């Protein structure tokens, strides 16, 4: 441990179970000396084991629907009371596609589902920062991080409307990040993570094959949820004070690959 977050206070959205990246971030933040509030949607909290994480990290839990401004206002106000001051870091680890869950193909979307998924996965990020910004709830040189995926830039057919949600999420990080940086010296970034076997990720069709493909394409292999947590901690720390408005690829090099030897060998073997 490096005490990178000693004395820092935060809010972590989206810890569902020990497979969640947010769960790993909470564990690592605790190890690095931070105190924080855990939050998730009330329905997700009934499904998950968040109480166990709260006990392990000495954290309070505040249920909040990230699509509700009222809930978010209450969350930020109560978090500042619990933590005894302004916030230093926030993790947005929220994503959902009802179209994926219901098996609706991208070319035959249910637009009510699309709208709900967009509200939960992307617009919620704007809402969270809106509340933090207008309440002046963040300390100077604070850090806001959201998790994204490279389907925002490239086609992954079965990622469905989540690709659109992530593209919008990344745009929000840049646009809101400008104002947050200019006015409050707060930095805003997204981490574009390798495919990771979380509850949300595993719901995508053909996920296991896709996980294997990405691992074979990446010179360093896929980044795990714990790897992502470590990277997130550096972005919460004072070591990255001038990093903002960035979409940071954390994927073992996958995002800059055209093809790898292993993948080529597989194709050549098929031809023979």
What this model shows, in words?
- This protein is an alpha/beta fold.
- The protein has one domain (9-271): Rossmann fold (3-Layer(aba) Sandwich).
- Helices cover 46% and strands 15% of the residues.
- The protein has a seven-stranded parallel sheet, with helices on both faces.
- It is globular and about 60 Å long.
- The mean pLDDT is 95.
What top-tier CATH class fits best?
Alpha Beta
Structural class: alpha/beta
Largest sheet: 7 strands, parallel
Strand numbers in spatial order across the main sheet: 3-2-1-4-5-6-7
What's the β-strand tally? 7
**Radius of gyration computed on alpha carbons:** 18 Å
CATH topology, by name, is Rossmann fold
What is the rounded distance between the termini? Answer: 51 Å
Average pLDDT for all residues:
95
Task: Extract low-pLDDT stretches.
Answer: none
Assign the CATH architecture.
Answer: 3-Layer(aba) Sandwich
Count of alpha and pi helical runs: 10
Strand fraction: 5-15%
| CATH homologous superfamily label | NAD(P)-binding Rossmann-like Domain
């Amino acid at each position: 441990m490096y005490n990178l977050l000693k004395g820092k206070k935060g809010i972590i959205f989206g810890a569902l179970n020990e497979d969640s990246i947010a769960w790993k971030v909470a564990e690592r933040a605790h190890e690095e000396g931070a105190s924080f509030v855990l939050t998730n949607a009330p329905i997700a909290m009934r499904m998950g084991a968040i109480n166990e994480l709260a006990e392990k990290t000495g954290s309070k839990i505040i249920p909040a629907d990230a699509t509700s401004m009222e809930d978010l206002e209450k969350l930020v106000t109560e978090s500042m009371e619990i933590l005894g001051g302004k916030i230093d870091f926030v993790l947005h680890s929220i994503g959902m596609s009802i179209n994926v869950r219901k098996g609706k193909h991208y070319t035959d979307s249910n637009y009510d589902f699309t709208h709900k998924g967009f509200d939960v996965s992307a617009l919620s990020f704007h809402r969270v920062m809106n509340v933090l910004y207008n309440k002046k709830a963040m300390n100077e040189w604070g850090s806001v991080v959201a998790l994204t995926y490279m389907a925002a830039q490239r086609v992954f057919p079965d990622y469905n409307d989540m690709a659109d949600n992530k593209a919008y999420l990344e745009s929000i990080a840049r646009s809101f990040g400008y104002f947050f940086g200019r006015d409050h010296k707060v930095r805003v970034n997204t981490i574009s993570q390798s495919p990771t076997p979380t509850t949300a990720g595993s719901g995508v069709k053909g996920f296991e094959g896709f996980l294997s493909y990405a691992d074979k394409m990446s010179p360093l292999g896929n980044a795990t949820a714990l790897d992502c947590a470590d990277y997130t901690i550096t972005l919460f720390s004072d070591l990255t004070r001038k990093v903002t408005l960035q979409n940071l690829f954390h994927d073992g090099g996958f995002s800059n690959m055209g093809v790898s030897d292993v993948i080529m060998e597989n194709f050549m073997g098929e031809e023979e």
